[in-house]
Amino acid sequence: MIDYQFNTADLFFALPELFMVAAIALILLLDLFVSERFQNLTYYLTQSTLAITGYFAFNLIGESAVIFDGTFVLDTIGSYFKVFMMIFSIVALVYSRHYLSVHNLLKGEYFILSLLSVFGMMVMVSAHSMLTIYLGLEIMSLSLYTLIAIARDRAVAIEAALKYFVLGAIASGLLLYGMSMIYGITGSLDIGQIAAFATGANLISEQVLILNFGLVFLVIGIAFKFGAVPFHMWVPDVYQGAPTSVTMFLSTVPKIAATAMLVRLLIDGLGGLQAYWADLFMILAILSIGLGSLVALMQTNIKRLLAYSTISHIGFILLGFITGVVEGYGAAAFYVLAYVLMSLTAFGTIIVLNKQGFEADQIVDFRGLSKHSPWFALIMLFVMLSMAGVPPFIGFYSKLFILQQVISAGYIYLAVAAVVFAVISAYYYLQIIKTMYFDDTEKEVTVTAPMDMRIILSINGALILVLGLMPSYWMELAISLF
Amino acid sequence: MIALSDYLILSAIVFCIGLAGIFINRTNIILLLMCVELILAAVNTNFIAFSYYSSDVTGQIFVFFILTVAAAEVAIGLAILTLMYRNRGSIDVDVTNSLKG
Lengths: 482, 101
What we know:
The complex is a heterodimer.
Chain A: H1 15-34, H2 41-59, E1 65-67, E2 72-74, H3 76-102, H4 108-125, H5 130-148, H6 155-186, H7 191-198, H8 205-226, H9 234-241, H10 244-269, H11 274-295, H12 302-322, H13 326-352, H14 369-372, H15 374-388, H16 394-408, H17 412-438, H18 451-469, H19 471-480
Antiparallel strand pairs in A: 1-2
Chain B: H1 4-24, H2 29-53, H3 58-88
Helix pairs in contact in B: 1-2, 2-3
């Protein structure tokens, strides 16, 4: 450890992160001094920072290196995840801007906090030490708590922020306790050295026991961050209480980061114990799919409904990891990206209905949408069919790949249960479609969203269909990440 | 000589007190913050004990980071608490139950 030498050339491999943190500092200062005169400066600077960071990450695809004394890793999965995170964040911020401006929340802090949380996610994605994972996680979470509380005079938003804060802090505590156990038995924080220890042939049973003890806490921490049952209590409340734009951000990009954390800790680090954590994941996955599908049936608030739908999608993602083969991990990564695309579109369509002083968050707000705005009703139809798993949309293929892998790994009963619950969940997705197309309302539904949001939302909705027409290319890409 | 296991038992007890405090506590939100601090203190004890007995300094460095992050976390927690008080006029746990379904 002492003989570590700092090498300036290493900085090149961390270029996206370094650029981003410098840009955040600059935007923070600029926002303080010039935001009075140039209203949208912070927004445009934020978007260009995300775009440039994504470009840097894209250029680093194919490179791989472990730098900074083994705390930071650059590899293919990390670079791809970063590129996707940047793209999805840009889209999410375009949608957020409309929401914020109609609800008088348009402030520079919002964009800076979003950037900071994306930075934390990038650190998580590239972490190669438990220390970096923890720091990335906290940078992300602390920014997200503050983002929820940005609607300072909405009591429900503050309550959501408080719940997320307390449960997030418990999750971090459990994760840290697990990390301390793993550190104690392996004597290292480095993921590579932990992996070498966990796959070692001459482990005595006491060592395996302590590793498993730590592992359980790590799995609980990860399940908390994902929102898997039985650690899902915060998800519906936070989704409902937070401002819709924050809910959208919360339900999309951090899920990619949570997947990266799972990959780093459990596959790269404790891959030798796959048989043990797969058992835990089986319980989490099937409970999540079941509860997510059943409880969503009774919801009238669309944000809360999407929260339960998220829980059930998370169950499918976790199913991919129990297979223990590269194809299964690839299917899970594909599912995460497909889910993020669908979720962005769903929340984008909700935000499009928001007007000055009008918060669209009930299912009844979608009544008669097909008459007043057939285009956005069609996009919502795409999303709902895709989430329900109807071909040829991307949501069908993501479920199909997961189920293929689960069956070929021999868990036929899990696949059967997952399909049964997926069919049940189709009911509430179809109910929204019915509300849009067959229910009438006297209330005039007008769409006041700006042109950039309409165009991007249309592209987003079209991608759900178009990407579903060529799924094998994306699936091969996802498998090549592992 | 205090053995490693003594430290681990102590930290496990503190950890359980913190965790139980969060779930049993039905009165005040500030108590929740204190329980979170207890959990982190237990983790710190673990790290330092392991670090000392394996003569490896990285565990102690981790503790420095945990302390720093905990300070930031409490700052944000108290800020949210202030907003809560301003909106609801109370910081009881019982008033934080308007979100249900």
